[in-house]
């Protein structure tokens, strides 16, 4: 099904000099997940922030819930909807609309701790792009491990990965490079950035990453290749 492009601005008074733009793509997640993620952005200690909620072709009921909830917030947020094109292409599509000096991402089933954006701003220093560690929520030891980007039959710990939503960088990085539509697009983006810009892994854990999600891309790859910790 093809959806018409929809964009609504739900902020009464948009800050013109935005420091941080947060992008969140949504595709048929339970609404309470999405609400939790939105609330964690809205409640940040650092608040010169704009939020783009990008509905990547979810069912209409979820879209309505998101729009209705956003209109109750006193926050600079915009809602966009388009046909399903995936997380990578959705982010690429809306980077050009971001007004922030810095751009970052939040997955719709995760959340920020209250000091996450403050930590990112403090850590980036003279770098152009950083990635941080996560407070990872798991059900068992297996959940700490995901398929290696170069060999899907091998597992690596999430601490040794680059994750979409821990990327935080100057807008110029996201303008110049694009995410590929493939597994480990986040790691590949970081590697490509490292060839052009100054990058680093920052040592803090204020992004809450829920690895106990059964239908994630990494979970499905693990099932496909029947890999597990020995």
How are the elements arranged and paired?
Layout: E1 6-9, E2 20-26, H1 31-42, E3 49-55, H2 60-70, E4 77-81, H3 87-95, E5 102-105, E6 111-112, H4 116-124, E7 129-137, E8 145-147, E9 155-157, E10 167-170, H5 171-176, H6 185-194, E11 199-210, H7 217-225
Parallel strand pairs: 2-3, 2-5, 3-4, 7-11
Antiparallel strand pairs: 1-4, 5-10, 6-11, 7-10, 8-9
Short characterization:
This protein has 230 residues and is of the alpha/beta class.
Class from secondary-structure proportions: alpha/beta
CATH superfamily: Spore Coat Polysaccharide Biosynthesis Protein SpsA, Chain A
What is the CATH-assigned architecture? Alpha-Beta Complex
Shape: globular
CATH class term: Alpha Beta
Number of strands: 11
Q: How many H/I helices?
A: 7
CATH topology: the name is Spore Coat Polysaccharide Biosynthesis Protein SpsA, Chain A
User: SSE order, as H and E?
Assistant: EEHEHEHEEHEEEEHHEH
Mean pLDDT: 90
Task: Please tell me how large the radius of gyration is.
Answer: 17 Å
Instruction: Tally the structural domains.
Output: 1
* Low-pLDDT windows of residues: none
